[in-house]
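To fix ideas, we give here one paired sequence and structure record:
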Amino acid sequence: MTALDLTPAPGAAPFPRMVLAQAGAEVRATLRNGEQLLLTMIIPVLLLAGFSLAPLVDIGGGSRVAFLTPGVLALAVMSTAFTGQAIATGFERRYGVLKRLGATPLSRAGLLLGKTAAVIAVELIQVVVIVAVALALGWRPHGSFPAAALLILAGTAAFSGLGLLMAGTLRAEATLAAANLVYLVLLGAGGVIFPLSKFPAGVRPVLELLPISALAGGLRAVLAGGAVLPLGALAVLTGWAVVSLALASRTFRWE
């Protein structure tokens, strides 16, 4: 009879399992945080329902819910990939969470992959909720859904880079203030609720280069206008993603 080998064999879990475990922890932390839930779920849904049902904004004709839904989807991506991630990561850096994670077998690449997977998971929940509310309000989308998904992924990369850039260079309190300020500014000036055509002609070209404007406009062109893939919006989002992620990788401080 062969004796059982009970010798301890400590070792790290496989890399994919570590990434999934970290992503799961990030998702649970987001959904359990009341402020994050307000930012990522409740505010976008309230904006969609409120501005769709009440004629508070002149969109220049057409269905209000058809105009608002793509913009609110873009807002949801920004709230999760940029605002929520910047604030959470900034305070994780301040309280030493990132430093402690760095002492575990989870590598920095694994941590970033886990955070990215968590952002995408939360965005999937947001999309399901927002689309369900929009359909209940009478929204009837038409267009290329793969193109819309590609725009959302590009927007996620752009906003994630901006969020990590802010969280990795500013103090946590400054990140909190700056992320919320940017959120409010882009909400008002990014074509989410108010059409860009309502702004002065002189500032419109600048506003169109903002990542939120490109994402909202691109999704609107696909889901409301039936466009195959708005290459201009995709190019703007890709440019923001490349620049912000490159700067974040160079300047991010883990402690």
